[in-house]
Design goal:
alpha/beta, 2 domains, elongated
Length: about 270
Amino acid sequence: MIFCVEDEQNICELEVYTLQSVGMEAQGCGSGRELFALLEKQVPELIVLDIMLPDEDGVSILRRLRADKRYSNIPVIMATAKGSEFDKVKGLDSGADDYITKPFSATYLKARVKNLLAQRQKLQTLYRQNLMQAGAVAAVADEQSIGNVQDNPQTDKSAAMSPNDRKFMDKLIELMEKNMDNGDLVVDDFVQELAVSRSVFFKKLKTLTGLAPIEFIKEMRINRAAQLIATGEYSMTQISYMVGINDPRYFSKCFKQKKGMTPTEYRDKVLK
């Protein structure tokens, strides 16, 4: 779902129709108040936000979005008046991911929205790749690793992770590290520690990594297991318990699902 925030009804309807014409779900509203009412019901993939609105200007709305844990990761395209360089700068400084200048064509709007969504998908993929690399747990939490994602020439700067999202992921990785051997770890433990609702946690994690919470936990455990196997210092049973999977048979099954081979086959491959 994409929200289009525009107080001129004909323009708002055109934006919604344009996005719907290429198979995207879109809904329009005419003010900041209406936007936040919609956000209480659904978190969109992206927001197209006009800078000039009747009750509250777009920059102020954007700052509120970026300061709220529930909405800080939503990509935002600011719509500015032609030639208003000051508005563009204010929008980008406040955390806008992109901007379009009015009047704009339907083709241009579709292109900017598709491009930003694709950039977010690329960042998500790169972030998951970091998780899946050998030494992934340390690498993802490491400042340099995240910097590498942001500095990658193939990743647009507008797709870079926001400070709030980085803080969220760093805290999540830290919690996972501390509880790696805890087989009783559940999603509610993360929700409580991060002080967010279950719905916000699910949505934010899915947006940033492409993984549901249970998948994320399992992937972190298996990645750590691969690291431990590569040391050659522990038995498979020991490793199973060290990563919080208290059933060695289930551990072997999960490992094969993620790595395409059993733990023993993986050990023989990396230690030969």
